[in-house]
Structures
1.
Amino acid sequence: MTFSHLRSWSQTIWGIFDVVICIVMLEQFYSFPFLIRFRGAVGWYTVDLDLPPGKRWTALITDKKTDVRTLSNLANAFVPSGRLIELVDITLPLMVDTLPNPFGDEIKGIAAVSGIPLGEVVLFNIFYEVFTVCTSVVAEDNKGNLIHGRNLDFGLFMGWDVKNKSWIISEKLKPLVVNLDFKRNNQTVFKSTNFAGYVGMLTGIKPHIFTLTMNERFSLDGGYIGILEWILGKRDGMWMSFLTRSVLENATSYEEAKSRLAQTKLLAPAYFILGGNQTGQGCIITRSRLLSIDLLEIDLKLGRWYVLETNYDHWKEPLFLDDRRTPAMRCMNQTTQANVSLKTMYDVLSTKPVLNKLTTYTTLMQVSEGKLESYIRDCPNPCMPW
Ligand SMILES: *[C@@H]1O[C@H](CO)[C@@H](O)[C@H](O)[C@H]1NC(C)=O
Ligand SMILES: *[C@@H]1O[C@H](CO)[C@@H](O)[C@H](O)[C@H]1NC(C)=O
Ligand SMILES: *[C@@H]1O[C@H](CO)[C@@H](O)[C@H](O)[C@H]1NC(C)=O
Ligand SMILES: *[C@@H]1O[C@H](CO)[C@@H](O)[C@H](O)[C@H]1NC(C)=O
Ligand SMILES: *[C@@H]1O[C@H](CO)[C@@H](O)[C@H](O)[C@H]1NC(C)=O
Ligand SMILES: *[C@@H]1O[C@H](CO)[C@@H](O)[C@H](O)[C@H]1NC(C)=O
């Protein structure tokens, strides 16, 4: 069978799939109660930025200690023995001091409170940078409100539980999903959906100013060389999710966020999906390690009322085995700009395979209301592994 055979075969299969399960369509016929489709709303914790970095995570980690430990043991099971163990036990703990502030001290604080060896907490923080696949979308409604949604999919290839038809790590991550309210002077600076134990940001909102998510970009030109270089001692790039954290914490406008995300040198390629607080302010920044190689913005004049990113460059076809983009766009198109809202965006993000066995949470944000809400997800069978 040739590649193009495979390709048209897979498109046919997906074509059938889409018609069967586009939730937005089903909704019109059956009007599902909104509440039955998610497992649970996510709890809130405050992170006080006025505390020294080593103390900021104490309350959260004390609460989630057992789950963080379980996950860390599991992650260990997937790390092959020998060289890597040496890396985790000897090299990574030394590297924590080379991390920029406040990240190194925050990670040390998490290790101290959880009782997990420092190297493992560092590894845990690196893991999310490397194995995350997701879907992000920013849309503008008819009134000029910007809405930003994302599914966070994690745990690919890290152990499949045959009995439960689920990814082992993805399941263990779900209890770690938390919403965080970062405060300074007792006032919210930004909010985020995160995994307890992780100090970088993958999903966040600066209320009334901007919303931001990061998706992984698999790329042959650059790849993980930067991460290897960093481990080996050449450390002139920034961790991707440390940059998003820093932008959420310290950027004060959409424009500032955009230029920092586009111009800061990174350790690996990434997609940043950014929404602002005014009409037209929504974009996908496609990054190589060094710079922004493409910017796709909402453009109402061209009829582009939303931008949507999975894990493939928007100007190229997605990998045929992993096309979450086409079904997600089809559902956005069916929703129409007139009907886009947090609720309909949740429906789009509940459409398989946009929702799949890797999906740990869905987050919805509305910048004008300063609102972030997230849901832990289960994908009922039949459901694609990714
Ligand atoms: C698999 O399912 C069983 C029961 O349904 C549960 O006890 C077990 O914890 C699950 N395993 C995982 C890894 O989620
Ligand atoms: C912080 O703000 C909350 C309400 O927003 C208030 O109840 C509390 O007293 C404030 N704490 C301090 C120390 O100002
Ligand atoms: C944000 O800025 C403050 C003040 O310059 C700095 O201390 C802090 O480390 C910055 N935060 C991040 C995450 O970079
Ligand atoms: C939108 O963001 C800008 C900063 O970029 C801020 O000055 C302005 O007040 C914000 N608008 C609203 C309505 O919050
Ligand atoms: C969705 O609509 C856009 C704009 O009209 C179009 O370019 C795109 O091909 C459509 N995608 C799907 C999957 O229907
Ligand atoms: C938009 O929503 C309204 C009310 O829920 C519905 O009647 C209408 O058919 C929807 N329009 C489209 C284009 O889906």
2.
Amino acid sequence: MSAVRADKLYKVFGRRASDAIPLLEQGRDAQDVRKLGVTPAVIDASFHVEEGEIFVVMGLSGSGKSTLIRMLNGLLTPTSGRVYLGEVELNGLSAKRMRTVRQEKISMVFQHFALLPHRTVLENAAYALEIRQLPKGERVDRAREALGMVGLEGWEDHLPTQLSGGMRQRVGLARALAAGTDILLMDEAFSALDPLIRREMQDQLLELQSRLGKTIVFITHDLNEAMRIGDRIAMMRDGRIVQIGTSEEILQDPANDYVAQFVQDVDRSRVLTASAVMEKPVALVRAQSGPRQALRVMRENQVGAAFVVDRERRLVGAVRDGAVAEATRQGRESLNGLVSADDAVTVGPDVLVADLLTYSAEAAVPLAVVDDERRLLGVIPRVTLLAALGNGHHLEPATADDTTSSSRQESPDGAKGHESAHRQESLDDTQSETDNAGTEEVTP
Ligand SMILES: Nc1ncnc2c1ncn2[C@@H]1O[C@H](COP(=O)(O)OP(=O)(O)O)[C@@H](O)[C@H]1O
Ligand SMILES: [Mg+2]
């Protein structure tokens, strides 16, 4: 079951709010409907957030992000549509029950920290637990532990004013963690921080997330931040969600011109990973085949080296044309002794393209992308890497069984492999085996 689910959510501000819903349902945009004297802030938002996921809501100021998140935690009642936290549907809960659900399930982290100025760091971190009337000893223990998680041990007795911005936001984060809820809602939580501090906080959040497995809905107007931390991103424009996808999906396949324009300046190398740019290996021989077969594959692909895989498609290494030709001349039947593991530089599918260049610099053959068991998933010729870095707009994703990509493909020594796709198929077949937050209340 999803941790958070929104089903056709609408929030329209104004007296005639409900009159606007049918119009919006018919596809009229926010601007049109404003003539009724209403402000449509969120229009037809449907999505689900899985447990342990970081779901980013991304959009320019005024696109409806804060309104959306306030409906998720019950601070705002939707004009239409439903919100579910796990199996609990928020609509129709009594005020008392809503408070309990909120306290037990959700913590908020705000842009301007919302710390209580006259309370110590420890008291601030323990605040949500105080509201819940937990015994003092337990409050203190949990607050201390949470402060430790965000690197603030030793600061317990200081006042917020004695802290830097980054540290204050760590207190905000500690307060949310101390509450022990499974869901964190973060509204522009890092937006007020300096870029370097902000990066640190992003890293810390990712690290905490991998350890604690919280479900996080993270709001930002900064695309780089969204791409850096989001497992998936919902792109909002004028109240509507125009696309939901991973950062790679949004970069590679923007849903419309708006999204395309939005992402055009993104540093792709810091978002795209090896698996997004890898191509189908063409010059590939099996370890069991002999030198003659290896030579044939290289000749067909007009390349000077080939990758060698075993029956399970695990990468053994690469063979070079010279050595193979010599072995053929000597009438040898096996590739034994000719396969060099050093020639094949391997990377994991999740390595960022930006980091691939370091590997690629000294590699004579394409980079081999392998899984944990060293199975060959794809290859990345240097020219592909350079294309990905230079211009991602026309970069088509190539999957391991995408034969159409073979025309762009290069073989181990970097030469063109034209008609190799269908040849490779036969090998594959035999082996067929991927705001204004300063005034916001502290959420109890
Ligand atoms: N309480 C409110 N009353 C009237 N309009 C509001 C209210 N809250 C937000 N809005 C309007 O709803 C739209 C979306 O606002 P908001 O959700 O704060 O966007 P974001 O968080 O993306 O900047 C804006 O046009 C804003 O002016
Ligand atoms: Mg906002």
